[in-house]
Predict the structure of Dehydrogenase.
Amino acid sequence: MNQANLAPSVCPHDCPSACGLMVERLADGRIGRVHGAKMPYIEGVICAKVARYAERVHHPDRVTTPLRRVGPKGAGAFAPIGWDEALDEIADRFRQAAAQNGAESVWPYFYAGTMGLVQQNALNRLRRAMGYSGQAKTICASAAGAGWMAGVGAKWGVDAREMAESDLIVIWGANPVATQVHLMGLINQARKQLGAKLVVIDPYRSGTAEKADTHLMLRPGTDGALAVAVMHVLFREGLVDRGYVERYTEGADRLEAHVATRTPAWAAAITGLSEAEIEAFARAYGTTKRSLIRLGYGMSRSRNGAVNLHAASCLPALTGAWEVTGGGAIQSASGGFAIERTLIDAADLPEPKVRTLDMSRIGAVLDGDPGALAGGPQVAAMLVQSTNPATVAPETDRVWRGLARDDLFVAVHEQAMTQTARFADIVLPATTFLEHADLYTSYGHSFLQVARPVIDPVGQARSNHWVVGQLAQRLGAVHPSFAMDDEAMVAGILAASGLPDIDAILAAGWHDCTPSFDRAHFLTGFGHGGRFRFAPNWAAIGPDHARLPALPDHAALTEATDALHPFRLITPPSRHFLNSTFADTASSQKLAGRPTVLIHAQDCRRLRLADGQLARLGNQRGSVVAHVAVTEAIAPGTVAVEGIWRDESFVEGIGINRLVGGDPIPPAGGAAFHDTAIWVRGEA
Ligand SMILES: Nc1nc2c(c(=O)[nH]1)N[C@H]1C(S)=C(S)[C@@H](COP(=O)(O)OP(=O)(O)OC[C@H]3O[C@@H](n4cnc5c(=O)[nH]c(N)nc54)[C@H](O)[C@@H]3O)O[C@H]1N2
Ligand SMILES: Nc1nc2c(c(=O)[nH]1)N[C@H]1C(S)=C(S)[C@@H](COP(=O)(O)OP(=O)(O)OC[C@H]3O[C@@H](n4cnc5c(=O)[nH]c(N)nc54)[C@H](O)[C@@H]3O)O[C@H]1N2
Ligand code: SF4
Ligand SMILES: [Mo]
């Protein structure tokens, strides 16, 4: 490795680690290997898929010029056009839609393909200036955020590096071996150095569960029952720190009376765990304060996910684990960065009085479902940036039907020819993080980072912010940001936030925003006027609160299995992909194999399914074909399909989200990706 040709950058993907990177720059303008920066938390380690990023930046199918559709919608037949022509057409179609049906008929649709603050939020600035429809960003973190905010009331928590001092680490509904490799590194270290014990709570033996001292393989969507029974044992056996509870929480008396009837036997019937497993976990948890719980997103992707996550978050507030190093809980670190967002969101423009459309319900929205349209007009024009809803959103059939509507204009700004891009009328080539500047926070650590371009744009690729500036010019949208370049945006945000400038951060490598111990452990008080809430004020957290229990409980809101749909499907991410990104690179495809359904051996015997055979999975929404893996690593009655594969990787060209429902998770929305009732049968 030639040090002179290493350039610093930051991984922009939607992954808690937000790794600082060192990128090999080759003489021909391409990149070579990508390495991890020597920064805290990352310690020079990155995942294999980003180490091989050259495969993605220089992918033969990379979108390199603007394209216009020349075949039927969705067929993927395109011809190159110029940038001016493409931008003029998008602006014309937006103007037309606004003139005919009002500005709200334009729906800018964007998500976290890049986590960089400038590029990720570019479309929101245009939306605000033009009065286009708003977007509820629910597809990932709404349910988890609602559950966490219900009790804790602030979006940060313990620094993961404290795990080095934990006695007990609980990974609850997360799979860091795949989704957060650095957390796994810290867990391994804690176990080796201090003999910390690892408990993993997951409906299947994930890569992380594989490594656990104890794996609690519960039924999906039953975490609330488990948490409540643990609380029962903590109260019963005197493991509650009364002094802590008195000082830092509210509602404990009601909680104690409420959980008195929620015994381990009661929870065993709901979770499928044994009473002994539940009691042993409760005692292990309650007999040390150095217990750190990682509350993952997986447990929140059920219709009762917010309730379940809140229930689990009650445990450290009972034992007082928050008071010690290596104790407490972690959900997301994202709220710890004090970023002044006015420039990012164009928030100095008045917020237009427009409806907000739920991005997870894109199928229902494009279908014209009156509830989903929130009282506004049909969507007539879209620009999609940094997300691939045709593959990642629930209700695939409805999404595809909607995107193919004759009366809908769709522009997609992409790096890769995704399923969503294939539906576009106009495709625009997007830069990768190596080709544009940005500013990065993280949801797994507290180091703020910046990056300048490492290579020139590939082909005619341009950044999200540039595209928005060009459209603003054509549409007459006015805001200072539209005239600024990417780097000026980064500089402006840093200055407004009172943070060091780009050069200073680059020279240091990062800017440390780690909250103090007292703040991270809420010793200065929790979010809601200082106290942790055992009885949430759900109404203040989201509008859809009527069905939620007043106190932590098992809320029977999940999609019910029945005689016709006896299996519960979960669809966790693949280690080798990042959502649907990397699912098109040769090495990730090779490592991931093929779309596979994990089914317990006992269920396979009953269904006469053999390993490697094709099975059809289905429900009222449709069916999907995948290869069977016979396993003991999942509870009978639960089946798992890992990875957001490209749709074309499935035998019938349509992927797993065909089976997933689009109804929102109460109280604040979210997609119930791990909460689907299905049937399974052998495919001849
Ligand atoms: N390699 C890789 N890394 C990623 C991603 C990726 O696609 N690939 N995606 C990134 C993104 S966007 C996110 S949001 C994070 C998500 O990362 P995580 O927080 O780890 O969440 P998930 O991966 O959705 O699910 C984690 C585990 O929850 C389990 N689970 C499912 N249902 C339940 C349940 O009802 N209860 C419990 N206790 N567990 C359940 C699943 O089986 C899975 O093993 O990872 C990020 N990192
Ligand atoms: N079945 C199932 N479905 C899921 C999940 C699951 O666990 N199971 N997980 C859900 C979760 S947690 C999430 S967060 C969503 C994520 O879903 P998405 O947000 O759609 O994430 P990706 O699939 O990674 O797609 C991001 C796209 O953005 C593009 N991109 C990257 N950077 C840029 C840029 O700078 N500019 C532009 N214009 N484009 C860019 C990439 O090429 C890529 O195609 O998926 C959800 N879907
Ligand atoms: S995907 Fe995650 S682990 Fe991999 S380089 Fe990016 S931030 Fe780091
Ligand atoms: Mo996510």
